[in-house]
Amino acid sequence: MHKQKSIKPVSSVSNLNNRLLESKLEYLLESDVPASRVYLKFTGMFHGESVVWNACIRTIDEYSQHHEVAKDPMQFIEIDVDDGVHFLQVGLNVEVIDKPTIERTILMIRRYRRLHQGRHEYGARSKTE
Description:
The chain has about 130 residues and is α+β, with helices and mostly antiparallel strands. It has 3 helices and 6 strands. About 25% of the residues lie in helices and about 35% in strands.
């Protein structure tokens, strides 16, 4: 999994919540949008525990430029927990990642009750023949 090495990961839910309250934001965006890959931080639940998601949301096309993929790759959610820090990567079948896409993705992650470590592919394939 691609961890955000250039952006300092956060694990303290209270610290992030305080920053979000001060700035009156729902999430901390660390990239310019629109883009093919964005980094952000937001809170959510994982195995019944409140966590900070250190997230990367990217288009399937951008992901496939840096990783070997099947001829017809699917959307995915990939979770890695490293020493108490929760990393989330989401690959989406969209042309570009913009604010509405970010907000829908956050909502999807917060509502999805069976999140687990590792990679989970889902939804329609990204390309058709």
